[in-house]
Amino acid sequence: MMKTDSSIDIHQLVSKLKNEDQKYSNLSRRMQVMYMVLIPVYLFLIIVHIIDGSSGFEILSSICFLLGMVSFAVLFHNYHKEYKLVDYSQPTVLMLKKAVNRYQPITKRTIWTIPGILFIGAGLSLKTSLGETIIIQVIFWVSMVLAIFIGLLWWKKRYKPIRDSALAMLRELEN
């Protein structure tokens, strides 16, 4: 059994990574399915708005929501695929480097959440009057900041220890 000076067992770490990757893959899949269910709902709403002769703002609002749902469905599809297809048979150093990258709280791939959030924010703005828009946007953006804060706290509690263990093991193997 390979142990480091900090008594990290590579087999325990890999087992923990496999377990967390599987959980994250399953969560991503459920989120993808949820957004895939919402896509036809918003398509239906767009058709209803067009048939009813709704204002261009109502139609545009629904299109923004639809684009937000598509954006998140694609994002979660990619996350699901990434976590499901992790190759643990790669050389240990490479596998650990990829694990460290997967468990970073903010990466290039998280930037892809921005379009979905902006589309939903735009959809909320187009749906309401100016006075209501300000209130709704404040609530929406405060909710987004709060969600990011909670997400970072969750990462710190749940995923940072895994990333830190992988980093420690990686440093030891590279020395």
Can you lay out the helices and strands and say which pair or pack?
Layout: H1 10-52, H2 56-84, H3 92-102, H4 113-126, H5 130-158, H6 160-174
Helix pairs in contact: 1-2, 1-6, 2-4, 3-6, 4-5
Commentary on this structure:
The chain is built from 6 helices and no strands. It has about 180 residues and is mainly alpha-helical. The longest helix has about 45 residues, at about 10-50. The radius of gyration is 21 Å and the shape is elongated. Mean pLDDT is about 90; it is low at about 1-5.
What's this entry about, in short?
This protein has 175 residues and is mainly alpha-helical. It has 6 helices and no strands. The protein is elongated.
Strand coverage percent: under 5%
Integer-rounded radius of gyration: 21 Å
Mean pLDDT: 90
Structural class: mainly alpha
Choose one word for the global shape: elongated
Tally of contiguous helical segments: 6
Could you estimate the helical fraction of the residues in percent?
over 70%
**Structure summary, number of beta strands:** 0
Tell me the distance between the termini: 18 Å
From N to C, what is the helix and strand string? HHHHHH
Largest sheet: none
Low-confidence stretches: 1-6
